[in-house]
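Changelog excerpt

This revision adds worked examples to the README so contributors can see how folded entries look when concatenated. The first example is reproduced verbatim below.
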Amino acid sequence: MRGTRAYSGVDPFTGMGRTINVAAGVIQSDEPCMAEGLPVFSPGLIDLQVNGYYGHDLNDGELSAGQVEALSEALCRVGVAAYLPTLITANEANICQRLYAIQEAAEKLPYSRQMIAGVHIEGPSISSKDGPRGAHPREHIRSPSIEEFESWQEAAAGLVAMITIAPELDGAIDYLREIAKRGVIVALGHSDASEEDIYQAADAGARLSTHLGNGLAATLPRHPNAVWAQLAEDRLSASLILDGHHLPNSTAQVMIRAKGSERVVLVSDSVKFAGMAPGRYTSPIGGDVEVSGNGRVSISGTQFLAGSGFSLLKIVSNFSILTGLPFPVAVTMATKNPAQFLNRSVDLKPGKRADFILFDLDYDTGTAQPRDIIFGGESVMQ
C-alpha cells in the first residue's frame, strides 16, 4: 500500500521483535523481526485522571469546547491516546456547564473525538474535613444525589464514566450501588472512611481507589484504617500518582506488592501547571503555586502539594527508578489496566488505530525516553 510506514520495536509483553506497518492512520500488518538493539513499543497511554496540562485547565471558570480540544492535543503529544477529563468539586451549574463543553468537544473536534473516553467527576460527595478534602472547595461539598447525577449525564450526553466518592457519607452506599448498576466506575477517594465503610462500598460495586495514599488525613490510626482496608480488598484496584512527590518510593513499592501489578493503574492527576517551566503561578483553586525544577507543584511558601506536575508519559519514563520494577510493568499499568475499566483493547494489531510510543531504555539509569510518539499514524513528538 502506498504511504505505508514501518516501525520496528520490541513487544513489551512478549519480548519479541516486531515490525508494524502503518497506512492511513491504521495498523495494516505486522511481522516478526530481530529484537536486538530495538526500542520498546508501548500502546498509547490511557489516563483516568486529568485535571489539566500545560496551561490548560478544566476547572477554571467557564469551559469551552476549544479549551478541551487544546488540552486533548497537548496530551496526545505526550503519548496519551485516551483519557478521562476530570472535574473536581464545584456547584452543580458549573459542573454541568463543563460537562457540556467536554461533550461538545468529544462530538465535534478531532483530537477530543479520538481521545475522550468519558468523564471522571471527582466529588462533590467527599469528606469536608481538612486533609481528606485536599484542595476541593468545602463550600461545594454535598451529599450524593441521583437527581444530580442524572443532570450530569444529560449535560454530558451520557459521558460520565467514573465518579470518586467518600463512602462514609450519608446515602453514599445506596448511591454508589445505583450508579454502578448503570455502568459507572465507582472510585473511593478524598475520604475519612472506616474499614467497614470500605468493605460495604466494595460490596455495593466500588471498583477503584482514587490516588490511594493521597486525599487522606495527615495522620491515621495505626490499624485498622482506610489504607490497609483498601490494600486488602481485592475487589478494588488502586490508581497511584507515581511522580516521586505524592508517594514516597517505599510506600509506592509496598502498595504495588500488596495490590499486585494487575490491580494498579498509573494516573497523572495532572493540573494546568504540569509541563510548564519552573516558577510561581496563580491558580483559582490553590492560590499562588510554585512549580519546582523537579516538577513538584506546591502552594507557595508551603510543602503542601497543589496537584501533579507530571504527565503520564513522565511517570512511565521514571517508573523503574521509583519502583525497581521492569519497564513492561509500567506499560501494563498505564495501558492494559486502565483499558479494562473502559472496556477497550490496547492490542497493537492489524485494523487498530496506530497510536503507540517507541521508548529507548537506559538499563544503567533505569529510565525510559520516548524516541517517537505516533498518534493516528503520524509522529506528534515535539
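The second example, added in the same revision:
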Amino acid sequence: MEMIVVLHNIRSCYNVGAILRTCEGFGVKRAILSGYTPRINDKNLLPHLREKLNHEIHKTALGAEEMLDVYASDDIISELRRLKGEGWQIVGLENNIEEKLYQLGSSELKERLSGKVALVLGEEVNGIDDALYDIIDLFVEIPMRGRKESFNVSVAAGIAMYGIMAV
C-alpha cells in the first residue's frame, strides 16, 4: 500500500507536526499541506513568524518534517484531480456523513481500497471542506465505542493510516 496524506485546513501546528511524525513512521510517500494549514519554511511569512511556526511544528514532528517529501498546494482540488489521474484513490477521513462512508476495518472497505491511497484529513472541528466531497472517491470513519464523537485529528490520522495500510 502506497500512501500520500493531505492536511487540508488543519489549524494547529502541533497537529501538523504530530501527523508528519506519524506519516514518517508509516513510510508515507508524501504529505501535502493545503488551505490554511501552517507550512514549514513558509516564504510568505515574515522571518520571525516563519521561525515560530517551524519551531511549533518541529516540537511534535521531531525532525520528521525534514525526512518526508512535504509540500504546499495552493489549489488542492487541482492537486487531487492530478493525483486521481495518476491512479491515486482519494479517501477522506470523516464521520457523521452518510454517502460513500465505510468503517475502518470493514470487509466492504477492504474490497474498495486500491494500492495507492491519498488520505485527506480535514479541519479539527468541522472536518473536510464540503468543496472537496465531489472529488473524494470514498470516506472512511473510525468506529467509536465511547461517548465522544471523534478523536483529535492527529490521533485519528494515525489510526486511519494504520487501518488502511493493514489492508
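Reviewer comment on example two: Helices lie at 13-26, 47-61, 64-67, 76-85, 107-112, 153-165. The longest helix spans residues 47-61.
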